[in-house]
Amino acid sequence: MTNQPPHGGQQPQGFGPPPPQYAPSPQPPVPPGQASTGPEFLAVDRHSSIVVDEDGVTFEDHDVIAEFPWPEIRSVHYKPSPSGKALMMAVVHLDGRVYECVVAAKPREVLGQWFAQLAAVLGYYRPMGY
Questions:
Q1: Which residues have a Cβ under 8 Å from the Cβ of 45 and sit 6 or more positions away?
Q2: Which fold has domain 38-125?
Q3: CB environment 17-40: b (16+ within 10 A), e (fewer)
Q4: Residue 43 or residue 22, greater confidence
Q5: How far apart are CA 82 and CA 73, in angstroms?
Q6: Domain ranges within the chain, ordered by starting residue
Q7: How far, in Å, CA of 112 to CA of 65, rounded?
Q8: 73-127 residue pLDDT tens
């Protein structure tokens, strides 16, 4: 299976590094009853949240939850909002659909910490790229 960009061959602009040429093999699931061994990322504001862990990526926006298991994800992209006050993340599904979530960073300095943590966690689960 090749990793084709969505939307007529164009890559979403401005969201993290480009995806790899081939999707990496998914991480094996954690057996029931066994503690998670991988790192986790969590960004939360009053209305939204983003979680990245061994299961995949989860967005919550005003109590609506969307879960994206790693085997269904083509790529993950992120960037600061134009104001520099929020984390914008996009998940590109294998079929090319793009899902987005925005989480406000308060104080603004938290955004830099989130980027450092997010890069490490995504690098762990998607070692060949996001």
A1: 86, 103, 104, 105, 106
A2: PH-domain like (2.30.29)
A3: eebeeebeeebeeeeeeeeeeeee
A4: 43
A5: 25
A6: 38-125
A7: 25
A8: 999 999 999 999 999 999 999 999 999 999 999 888 899 999 999 999 999 998 8
